[in-house]
Design brief:
Radius of gyration: 17 Å
Largest sheet: 7 strands, parallel
CATH class: Alpha Beta
Strand order of the largest sheet: 3-2-1-4-5-6-7
Shape: globular
CATH architecture: 3-Layer(aba) Sandwich
CATH superfamily: NAD(P)-binding Rossmann-like Domain
Order of helices and strands: EHEHEHEHEHEHHE
Number of strands: 7
Bound molecules: NADP nicotinamide-adenine-dinucleotide phosphate
Number of domains: 1
Structural class: alpha/beta
């Protein structure tokens, strides 16, 4: 758990929606937020990880579930409604839901894979941000989009994924301009982080273990990221400690992007 004793780093009384909040980085962000006093709606397509989050993060007093697909307008509406119906407000939106796909050379890119990737990694977080803005504006709030370090430089084999996330960085900064001064919008670009998504493009557990080892060796700080590393930055950016921070694109990657 992240130490969150200083009042400006706390989220007491605040309500957050975390997409992808049942697993990995989103789940760790939900945990950090609850630890800092927030009530959190977690969403994702599978109900089981969401129910586990409720159980492990202190029960229905602290966590509500809104199962759904972020590419569906109806489901996104239900996610926002859950926050309002359950706790009467929304202060923080975290778009952590994402997928890695369409890996390989761009020359082999399939149009349907490209569309599916853009739908989850760019269109959905943009539309959810847009749809959440009227709620966030009421009392002031913030949006945090989870991008990737790969969006900041050309990475062979990840062109489609990284392009979608580079687009997310861009629209986040435009939103930061347009939503100011009531709502702040920031981005975290994680490096390789030990979650279920890592290596999903590989065909065997051995290959995944091998690439994790390689990533750890290539990272200046000498290890893969833990979801908690990203959650610590997310807590800062979503709290009043960051009240003068908007449009930031923060790498949290053990120095990987310096290489
Ligand atoms: N781990 C890394 O190395 C790394 C590095 C850079 C960036 N990131 C980014 O970090 C974010 C979180 O990923 P993670 O590492 O925490 O992996 P993860 O545990 O696999 O999280 C991805 C989450 O997104 C949800 N999701 C995927 N498609 C969805 C959809 N169509 N509708 C609703 N929810 C959907 C998944 O839940 P369901 O399957 O239940 O829907 C899951 O909870 C992603 O945006 C990813 O691109 C990760």
């Amino acid at each position: 758990m992240i130490p969150a004793s200083s009042p400006e780093f706390r989220l007491d009384g605040k309500v957050a929606l975390v997409t992808g909040g049942g697993t990995g980085i989103g789940r760790s962000i939900a945990e950090a937020f609850v630890g800092a006093g927030a009530r959190v709606v977690v969403s994702g397509r599978r109900e089981e990880p969401l129910l586990r989050a409720v159980e492990n993060l202190g029960g229905e007093e602290h966590v509500a579930v809104a199962p759904g697909d972020v590419t569906s307008g109806v489901d996104r509406g239900r996610m926002l409604d859950t926050a309002v119906r359950t706790w009467g407000r929304l202060d923080v939106l975290v778009n952590s839901a994402g997928r890695v796909g369409a890996t390989g050379p761009l020359e082999r890119l399939q149009e349907d894979e490209w569309s599916a990737l853009l739908a989850v990694d760019l269109t959905a977080p943009l539309l959810l941000a847009k749809e959440a803005l009227p709620l966030l504006r009421k009392q002031g709030g913030s949006i945090l989009n989870i991008s990737t370090g790969a969006s900041l430089r050309p990475v062979s084999g990840f062109g489609a994924y990284a392009a979608a996330k580079a687009g997310l960085n861009y629209v986040s900064q435009v939103l930061a301009l347009e939503a100011a001064p009531r709502v702040r919008v920031n981005v975290i670009c994680p490096g390789g982080t030990d979650t279920p998504i890592f290596g999903t493009f590989l065909e065997s557990e051995e290959k995944i273990a091998e690439i994790k080892k390689r990533f750890a060796e290539m990272t200046p700080l000498g290890r893969l990221g833990h979801p908690r590393d990203i959650a610590a930055a997310a807590l800062f950016l979503s709290s009043d400690a960051a009240q003068w921070v908007t449009g930031a694109v923060l790498t949290v990657d053990g120095g990987m992007n310096l290489e």
